[in-house]
Fold this protein.
Amino acid sequence: MSDAFAIAATGLIISSLLLIVVTHLAPPHFLAAKSSPRSNHQSHARQLGGLAVVPALAAAIIVSTWTGTIGLPTGIWLVLGAIILFATGLIDDARELAVVPKFLLQTVAAVVVVAGLFESLEPIAPLPPLVTGGVIVLVVIWATNLTNFMDGIDLMVVAGIGVPATILGLSGFLGLIAFDVPTVLALALAAALLPFAAANRPPASIFLGDNGSLPVGLIAGTIGVGLAVKYSVAAGALPFAYFIVDTGLTLVERTLAGKNIFSAHSEHAYQIARRSGLSATNIAVQVALVSSVTTGISVLICANVIGSALGMVSGYAIALVLFASLKWKH
């Protein structure tokens, strides 16, 4: 599996080198994190993570097209979508974009990604291909924002996105499931995030920022879509189950309470647990463990070891237990 080694090495090396460069050469106040109702980070570090993670991720995807593990057109569209959101995030980190232009740019990026995947997408019966594409665009936009919402404490994205990506990437590499677009992207994403994890451990010296969390969410959504199309909806929805549960139930709760769902807030279960005194490390470890289990169930579904219905129910039950524990136990 020399192709897999090339992809992983590219992500790891470029992410590591760029983290060293931006940490030492960026001006002290460049992309400094601002106080926000959404953030519960332990320190006011700089939002430099995306400057390393996204180029490394893009380079790893490009290598995957060069080795033939991902088709060239697909790889180009994926990189272009990530670049659009990288630029969007940089602007937002520097001067805070309004909701409407930010959403429009996310939509453009999602359409670009789905365009790259379109030939491999199967219609969702009884929907025609264009409607299928529209549904998937909405899913990718949701995944993009989901990751952005959950990037509120140290190591959270590493635990909820990086850990599932690592398990999926290794599963493809080891031949437990097919090594194709979803697992190749997962391997690339895991490799790009691993060096960042060292800088993001509490107390974090570097955050991803919107310039990192938006593209990471875009690729995570693409991984989920790829698994759903190839295997089942359960396979695609399980790896990031805790993030889906926390964001989904928090959105429902805020809607029922008549609150503005577009305004920044700090009402996710993990944020409540952090303010109640639970350490960021403790929360991240719990999320990582649950994400490992739900991703493992996804792999078992892909390998036809267990059924989708059983896997979906058991995986989301575990994610719900963690959500309830973080929200109400403390």
Q: What stands out?
A: The first helix runs from residue 2 to 25. The mean pLDDT is 89. The chain has 13 helices and no strands. The CA atoms of residues 45 and 205 lie 5 Å apart.
